[in-house]
Amino acid sequence: MKQLFPMVMADVALFIVLNQQLCVLLVERSNAPQAGRWAFPGGILKPDTDHNLDDTARRVLLEKTRVDVPYLEQVATFSGPDRDPRGWSVSTLYYALLPHDRAPAVAGHKTEAVAWCNAQKPEHRLAFDHDLLLKAAVGKLRDKIERNALPLHLLPEKFTLTELQQTCEAILGHGLDKSVFRRHLKDDSRLVPLPGEFLLGSQRPAQLYRSAPGFRF
Amino acid sequence: MKQLFPMVMADVALFIVLNQQLCVLLVERSNAPQAGRWAFPGGILKPDTDHNLDDTARRVLLEKTRVDVPYLEQVATFSGPDRDPRGWSVSTLYYALLPHDRAPAVAGHKTEAVAWCNAQKPEHRLAFDHDLLLKAAVGKLRDKIERNALPLHLLPEKFTLTELQQTCEAILGHGLDKSVFRRHLKDDSRLVPLPGEFLLGSQRPAQLYRSAPGFRF
DNA sequence: TCAATAGTGTCTCTTAGACAATATTGA
DNA sequence: TCAATATTGTCTAAGAGACACTATTGA
Q1: CB B94 within 8 A of CB B55
Q2: Taking burial as the number of CB atoms within 10 A of a residue's CB, which of A63, A126, B64, B77 is the most buried?
Q3: Which of these, B92, B82, B104, B80, lies nearest to B156 by C-alpha position?
Q4: Cα–Cα distance, B141 to B150 (Å, whole number)
Q5: Do A2 and B81 touch (CB under 8 A)?
Q6: B139 CA, C17 C1': separation in Å?
Q7: Cα separation of B78 and A171, whole Å?
Q8: Model confidence, pTM
Q9: B8 to chain A: which residues are within 8 Å by CB?
Q10: Residue A2 binned pLDDT confidence (cut-offs 50, 70, 90)
Q11: Alpha helices in B35-150 (DSSP H)
Q12: Which chain B residues are Cβ-neighbours of A88 within 8 angstroms?
């Protein structure tokens, strides 16, 4: 017998940049269906407690990984009778960004393994239609960077322009010219230089910046 | 008592350009809730017959307006317990484009009035949160035009470059330079000039074009 | 001093934007 | 011929891209 209502869920692609590579958080499914494959953290809408699907997304991410994220954005909604063997499903995909210094904060459920996986070429076999979802999420993220958005939520509180550039490069998948990159950030109000604060090393010190108050993406 | 499952629906913003104005199709609600207000054509997912939400969107548009559209694209998904007084709802918004010479093809249900309404500043009071949805749909459409997409699905089969430019201007809400506009279309494979076919009038004839085979947006 | 990276400058080439000039029709 | 619109050209300024140069540290 056919079901009357579809499953309604939210999935989250949580991005991070590790070792100059754009990575995404995946959870190994421990139960059927598709046990052993890797999927985005996701879960079913709870109409009693969720105020909208954004809430659902934030909640499932918190439940599955213990991470609360500052920024969450809708990518698209996927639907159909066959994408999940349990039946007709509608799942709205979100993406979120995590600063690389918070990577250790991510913890799996007792029974589930989690892993940071190369977002451009995942080394795990994905469950359901999540390869499609991943493409969509990466595409949307790239789009924003190409349109001059700054992925500051991927960076720690204080960062240098070089780190920012490397983060953009990891997302775009190709190098950027240092001079051009910095020219664009001239007088950009989204960036605030921290007076007198520098990143030191065996080279010329690098000015540290933080994101402007109220910055959202 | 709370409901266990949300309503799952698709809404469609069907755009057209009439008299150089971007317009959207609205349906006057004849029944509660919100009778008398105007809303996008929309309807509830039928898991038995719809293969996905795109299907739902196409079907409800056909049912409500008798129009089958060549192009349909997802905008975003809106959700929450209060946006529809009937309870927790999830609705995925699509937009579609209709050539202006097909405006008369649109017909309402027996009991419902339909109207083309100014998309930038609607003259009707919208139902539910559809003012939000309208903003999102117009925004997405503008975005695509700004990124050099051609809204050929808003034009009749044969059209001139001037008509194409005016269509873009209607979407963007501001004028474009004729010379610049045409420069961009130089050697654009999306446009095919029709050899020897011109639009005549009391002026220099204008070359007619059609969209390239397989053109999608 | 040197290696390493930060940060700036310069040159060229492409393009956007504004506007002018020319072309072709019907009245 | 004129009015109207199509179509093309030209000039200028801004920006992108490539690359070189200078600056400042620790070793």
Answers
A1: no
A2: B77
A3: B104
A4: 10
A5: no
A6: 25
A7: 28
A8: 0.95
A9: 5-6, 8, 90
A10: low
A11: 53-65, 130-146
A12: 47
